[in-house]
Design goal:
This protein is an alpha/beta fold and about 170 residues long. The chain is built from 6 helices and 5 strands, in the order βαβαββαβααα.
Length: about 170
């Protein structure tokens, strides 16, 4: 988790909560989002907290290239909002430094929450883990893990006698 001397991109950062977390871990963070409003909120919080080594960009992952190379790129619950997720996935992968890590999370079309709850109209591309695994295979010379989160992943810890946190780092 040590980010000292490393760079990170939070693609689709919203108001910057994950970007601020990465900054606390020592990363020099760039947060980008399509929403000018969200980036303004992140910048305001950035100034109020007097943070160092953070940059905020209004950027469209579909239309614009990603400038720079990063040790870590995260895209939390954002790739389902883009027009062409396969192209965006390739852009994110291409922006990694050698030995960099790319972490992408997205709703699972076969997950219970997606099957039982109302659909979010802003989610243009919600696919199964099988679909994502197929797209990940197209990334040349990458190692990848495609893990499907199901309902029991979220409720099982309540049934255990003690709480645990499980973190998965997915090397690209």
């Amino acid at each position: 988790l040590d980010g000292q001397g490393k760079t990170a991109l939070d693609a689709g950062c919203g108001v910057g909560l994950s970007a601020f977390f990465l900054n606390e871990l020592g990363y020099q963070v760039t947060g980008s989002d399509l929403s000018d409003y969200a980036i303004q909120k992140a910048r305001l919080r950035f100034l109020q907290e007097n943070r160092k080594e953070m940059e905020w960009l209004v950027a469209d992952l579909d239309a614009q290239p990603i400038s720079g190379l990063y040790d870590l790129i995260i895209c939390w619950e954002g790739i389902e909002h883009v027009q062409n997720p396969a192209v965006v996935l390739q852009k994110l992968y291409n922006a990694l430094k050698p030995q960099g890590i790319l972490i992408v999370t997205t709703p699972n079309r076969l997950g219970l929450s997606h099957l039982l709850l109302p659909k979010d109209p802003r989610h243009i591309h919600v696919h199964s883990s099988f679909w994502w695994a197929h797209k990940l295979r197209g990334l040349r010379s990458s190692r990848w893990i495609c893990r499907s989160m199901m309902l029991w992943d979220h409720v099982l810890h309540w049934l255990r006698p003690r709480k645990r946190v499980i973190a998965h780092w997915l090397p690209a």
